Amino acid sequence: MKALIVEDDKVSSTLLQGMLSPWGEVETAGQGEEAFNKFCDAYSGAAPFDILFLDLGLPEVDGYQALRAIREYEQGFGKFGSDQTKVVVLTGSKQPHDLFKAESFGCVAYLTKPLDRTRLLEELERLGFFSPK
Q: Which CATH superfamily is domain 2-126 in?
């Protein structure tokens, strides 16, 4: 599994990186523009990310803007729907309109902060990154 964590909070980013690193390669980005650039570099280098963990509340280019740009980039290569990179939204919000908006941009799951390791592993299993026990 190759993952990109897009999170401006260093503590959350480091915790998530520690949770994911036993299962694959993990990179981080602290801002939306940085995430978009890393995503495009990996994609065009024939080593795309399998999953993206995206904080919605990023400074400057927020998570919604970054996700929109990433989806448009993928679509330029003919990737739509289930062929696109899986995106898990990271949020402190439990507001339905925030989650609905993220789903409309193509996220497949969301995790609320503070992050819970058990919940993370359940989502990764549900998304097909682990075999059922």
A: Response regulator (3.40.50.2300)
